[in-house]
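R.M. (postdoc): so does anyone remember the format we settled on? I'll just put the structure tokens first.
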């Protein structure tokens, strides 16, 4: 799996972080599989993101 992180600063000085995950295909099972892109926006009240809302949701169906 490849990952990337990009910090983004808004014009008002607010900050956000984009974390991306690119799941590798299995050579044994459909090595040419195409995967859709999805956006997951975890958290509430624009203050924090729970540890159970972001990465676990993104990787839940990584099969």
């Amino acid at each position: 799996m490849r990952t990337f992180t990009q910090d983004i600063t808004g014009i008002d000085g607010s900050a956000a972080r984009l974390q991306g995950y690119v799941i590798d295909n299995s050579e044994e099972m459909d090595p040419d599989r195409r995967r859709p892109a999805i956006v997951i926006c975890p958290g509430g009240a624009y203050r924090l993101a729970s540890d159970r809302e972001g990465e676990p949701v993104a990787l839940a169906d990584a099969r």
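R.M.: ...and that's the designed sequence above, right after the tokens. Also worth knowing: The longest helix spans residues 55-59. The two ends are 12 Å apart (CA to CA).
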